[in-house]
Amino acid sequence: MDFLNNFINNKIIPKVFTLSKEPMLYRDLMVANKLFNDGRRLEGNISGMKLSVFKNITLFVAVWHIIIVLPMMIAFHVGSTKINCHISIISAVIFTIMFFATYFIYKDFLIQRSAQLLIKKAWLNHFAHFNYEKYRFKVSTFYAKALENEIPIKKMQVHILNELVK
Questions:
Q1: Confidence (pLDDT) at 61
Q2: Using only C-alpha atoms, what is the Rg of the chain?
Q3: Using the 8-state DSSP alphabet, how is residue 130 labeled?
Q4: Which residues, other chains included, contact 137 with Cβ-Cβ below 8 Å and sequence gap of 6+?
Q5: What does each C-alpha distance from 50 to 46, 47, 156 come to in angstroms?
Q6: What is the mean pLDDT of the chain?
Q7: CB atoms < 10 A from the CB of 115, how many?
Q8: Where are the domains of the chain?
Q9: Across-strand partners of 17?
Q10: Among 71-80, 113-122, 147-156, where is mean pLDDT lowest?
Q11: Contacts 24+ apart (CB under 8 A), 10-14
Q12: How far apart are CA 53 and CA 44, in angstroms?
């Protein structure tokens, strides 16, 4: 599993996404962390991350053909030449539905993974002394309360750090 995670983080994400070399601003980190922790849609909402649609689709189609299409063709080719054409049409429709459904799952998974990598990288910059896994929900809660209390952005960082230290 570690190999797969490293492969996704180090090989797939850098090829599919254009990630900014610039450090993420504090306000952008707070927004991205809040969206990520709330499980909301991240595509287009995180600065410094741009999806290359062509590379994404090309990679997905290649993986889809290697993992799904080729084994199914090898396994069912002889039997599929003898079946009714109506069954072939129905199976093509089901296959197409499966293709697009898995594409959107794959795309959302990659967006979530790359967003988490960006957030963790920015976290080390802005909250170096606080563990991401331990404090990410607390910071998200403090950020939401600071927005409710209309604390200015310039004072928000000090306010959240004070809340964390308490």
A1: 93
A2: 22
A3: S
A4: 37
A5: 9, 8, 27
A6: 88
A7: 21
A8: 2-165
A9: 51
A10: 71-80
A11: 12/59, 12/110, 13/110, 13/113, 13/114, 13/117
A12: 13
Question: What span, in angstroms and rounded, lies between the C-alpha atoms of 51 and 62?
Answer: 18
The pLDDT of residue 101 is 94
Entry pTM: 0.82
18: which 2 tokens? 């254009």
Tell me how far apart the alpha carbons of residues 13 and 133 are, in angstroms, rounded to a whole number.
21
Neighbour-count burial of 55, counting CB atoms closer than 10 A to its CB (0-12 exposed, 13-18 middle, 19+ buried): middle
138-141 LR contacts (CB < 8 Å, sep 24+) = 138/163, 138/164, 139/30, 139/33, 139/164, 140/33, 140/34, 140/37, 140/38
pLDDT band at 148 (very low <50, low <70, confident <90, very high): very high
Q: How far apart are CA 126 and CA 32, in angstroms?
A: 13
Angle CA(114)–CA(115)–CA(118) in degrees, nearest 5?
85
Which tokens in the block code for residue 137? Answer: 């929900």
For residue 43, what are the contacts with CB-CB under 8 A and spacing of at least 6?
A: 51, 108, 111
Write the DSSP assignment of 7-36 as a string of letters.
HIIIIIHHHHEEE-SSPPPHHHHHHHHHHH
pLDDT at 83 over 90: no
Report the pLDDT value the prediction gives residue 73, as an integer from 0 to 100: 82
CA distance 139 to 145: 10
